[in-house]
């Protein structure tokens, strides 16, 4: 089942080797081709932290030292599901998925067949199965699994549930894996010892197979900054359309609504894009409009987010109106940890403080532009572009970038060379509260990797609460985010995961 939240704009110019959000590239005027990412298709550029983690995982899993993405513009696309899934896009194709395996508690790459070809070309010697010459016809034509009698070679590192690359044996050839053709990719059902000691049984379930062919590796385009400049240029026509639409919408609605104007800035990319649009719509126009900037400090923000707020304030000469809630840790003892169906933290740390600020500042209410996008969730995809706040009576809200994808947002920010939150360079997709019940285990792991002391504080509370309430270790590691009722409604996400995992 696919999660369709809007049109998938992502395409690729094979001539320039650049992602383009239009049918033609603005640099070379070539027709672009569709990139077959998983819906909703909210891809973004991969930053240094993303690439470091991907390359580190490839080295650990497949034994490859080479940087397969050198001088290429790489995208990551978050696929929906109950696990951490980031599709890796390079040269306009899906190389594979970066996944945090919750069972083994480790990062791994789930390669596509094209990704497997590139791994083999780069010298992969781990997680390999070589099948005999007569086996491919059964796999290609009948969708068969790899059975023990058809195995010519298995690498010693294979464990049960590993993602394996399936190669075809060549007659009178030594096991020089670079010379063998890739037949497919799959998941092992035996470990190495079982394989060598068995005469029958399923060795691997095949996830995908294809007739052997060569990879279509496109040319290098330069270091990250150079590649970004080319991406901005290639998308200037596509961006002009969405920017003009959003700026015109903001100007028209301010006149129509007739309330004091504000921009909600959170320290995240989407609200930064809205703030930049507000400058263009209201500061750089024939009829300037004054607007306030609001920041809601929940009390559990990353320090980097607070530093970004100050940087934005100084760079653009803004006096940012701030709320400051210090009640989260106090209320924990009373309410217990927040859950996906019990987000008391939102009311206590966001809604209530912001409501007080708006009551005091705006006698007749205000009109707030927010960085909400429909590609973020099903609930957000159903939002209108203007609506009354359901929780703060004096606030009317508007989403000028409702129809933008993450790529639109990033191209716009990078074009303006705006100071975005440095957390995005550390693999973070979201930069809100350091802990949130909406987080996946992989996102939790990223926080633990980068901010161990911060997470230890939170985990310390969880352990004490678990001891008082009779909760087990699995609850501490992530179960606190759910109730049984919530867990039972995840069948769609589980199916999306299963489609990839095989």
TrEMBL record:
<protein>
    <submittedName>
        <fullName>Phosphoadenosine phosphosulfate reductase</fullName>
        <ecNumber>1.8.4.8</ecNumber>
    </submittedName>
</protein>
<dbReference type="InterPro" id="IPR014729">
    <property type="entry name" value="Rossmann-like_a/b/a_fold"/>
</dbReference>
<dbReference type="Pfam" id="PF01472">
    <property type="entry name" value="PUA"/>
</dbReference>
<dbReference type="InterPro" id="IPR004521">
    <property type="entry name" value="Uncharacterised_CHP00451"/>
</dbReference>
<keyword id="KW-0560">Oxidoreductase</keyword>
<dbReference type="Pfam" id="PF01507">
    <property type="entry name" value="PAPS_reduct"/>
</dbReference>
<dbReference type="InterPro" id="IPR050128">
    <property type="entry name" value="Sulfate_adenylyltrnsfr_sub2"/>
</dbReference>
<dbReference type="GO" id="GO:0003723">
    <property type="term" value="F:RNA binding"/>
</dbReference>
<dbReference type="InterPro" id="IPR002500">
    <property type="entry name" value="PAPS_reduct_dom"/>
</dbReference>
<dbReference type="InterPro" id="IPR036974">
    <property type="entry name" value="PUA_sf"/>
</dbReference>
<feature type="domain" description="PUA">
    <location>
        <begin position="127"/>
        <end position="211"/>
    </location>
</feature>
<dbReference type="InterPro" id="IPR015947">
    <property type="entry name" value="PUA-like_sf"/>
</dbReference>
<dbReference type="InterPro" id="IPR002478">
    <property type="entry name" value="PUA"/>
</dbReference>
<dbReference type="GO" id="GO:0004604">
    <property type="term" value="F:phosphoadenylyl-sulfate reductase (thioredoxin) activity"/>
</dbReference>
């Amino acid at each position: 089942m696919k999660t369709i939240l809007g049109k998938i704009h992502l395409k690729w110019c094979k001539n320039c080797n650049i992602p383009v959000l239009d049918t033609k590239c603005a640099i070379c005027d070539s027709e672009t081709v569709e990139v077959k990412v998983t819906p909703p298709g909210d891809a973004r550029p991969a930053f240094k932290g993303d690439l470091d983690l991907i390359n580190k995982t490839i080295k650990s899993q497949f034994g490859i030292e080479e940087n397969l993405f050198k001088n290429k513009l790489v995208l990551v696309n978050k696929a929906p599901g109950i696990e951490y899934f980031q599709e890796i896009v390079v040269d306009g194709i899906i190389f594979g998925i970066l996944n945090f395996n919750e069972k083994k508690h480790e990062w791994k790459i789930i390669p596509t067949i094209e990704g497997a070809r590139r791994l083999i070309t780069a010298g992969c010697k781990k997680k390999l199965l070589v099948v005999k010459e007569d086996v491919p016809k059964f796999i290609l034509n009948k969708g068969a699994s790899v059975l023990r009698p058809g195995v010519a070679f298995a690498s010693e590192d294979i464990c049960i549930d590993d993602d394996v690359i399936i190669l075809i044996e060549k007659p009178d050839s030594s096991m020089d894996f670079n010379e063998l053709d890739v037949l497919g990719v799959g998941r092992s059902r035996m470990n190495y010892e079982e394989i060598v000691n068995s005469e029958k049984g399923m060795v691997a379930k095949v996830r995908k197979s294809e007739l052997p062919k060569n990879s279509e590796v496109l040319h290098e385009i330069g270091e990250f900054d150079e590649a970004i400049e080319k991406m901005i240029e290639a998308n200037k026509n596509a961006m002009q359309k969405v920017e003009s639409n959003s700026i015109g919408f903001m100007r028209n609605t301010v006149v129509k609504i007739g309330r004091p104007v504000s921009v909600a800035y959170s320290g995240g990319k989407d609200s930064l894009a809205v703030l930049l649009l507000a400058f263009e719509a209201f500061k750089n126009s024939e009829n300037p409009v004054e607007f306030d900037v609001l920041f809601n400090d929940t009390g559990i923000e990353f320090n980097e987010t607070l530093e970004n707020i100050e940087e934005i304030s100084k760079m653009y000469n803004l006096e940012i109106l701030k709320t400051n809630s210090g009640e989260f840790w106090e209320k924990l003892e009373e309410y217990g940890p927040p859950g996906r169906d019990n987000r008391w933290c939102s009311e206590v740390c966001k809604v209530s403080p912001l409501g007080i600020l708006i009551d005091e500042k705006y006698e007749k209410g205000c009109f707030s532009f927010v960085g909400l996008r429909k590609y973020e969730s099903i609930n957000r995809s159903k939002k209108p572009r203007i609506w009354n706040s359901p929780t703060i009576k004096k606030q009317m809200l508007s989403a000028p970038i409702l129809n933008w994808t993450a790529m639109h947002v990033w191209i716009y920010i990078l074009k303006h060379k705006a100071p975005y939150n440095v957390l995005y360079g550390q693999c973070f997709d979201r930069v809100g509260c350091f802990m949130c019940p909406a987080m996946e285990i992989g996102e939790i792991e990223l926080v633990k990797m980068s901010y161990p002391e911060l997470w230890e504080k939170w985990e310390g509370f969880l352990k004490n609460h678990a001891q008082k309430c009779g909760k087990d270790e699995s609850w501490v590691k992530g179960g606190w985010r759910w109730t049984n009722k919530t867990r039972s409604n995840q069948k769609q996400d589980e199916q999306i995961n299963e489609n990839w995992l095989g």
